[in-house]
Amino acid sequence: VLESIELLADAVESFRVRCVAGLQIDRARIDELLHRSLMLVTALAPRLGYDRAAKVAQHAHARGITLRDSVVELGVMSGAEFDRLVRPERMVGPRRTRR
Fold this sequence. Notes:
This protein is mostly helical. Helix content is 63%, strand content 0%.
């Protein structure tokens, strides 16, 4: 058991040194990927309905554009309205109940 623990500890230390040490967050890339995510379409469904929201996502996917560009291109809503509705920071974390 002690030998197995020692092997595991050595493996974890090796992983830390060779794979984890020095990693840094690329906030610009995270922001880019977040805003290009088609999953954000869920924020549009209450306003547009499921079918229209799905068409917006399919259009964005087919053309390789963002959801924001897709809604504007399709004339579904303005960019400013999209920005008001789609707030990724409100879509994560624990749900708060309204009182």
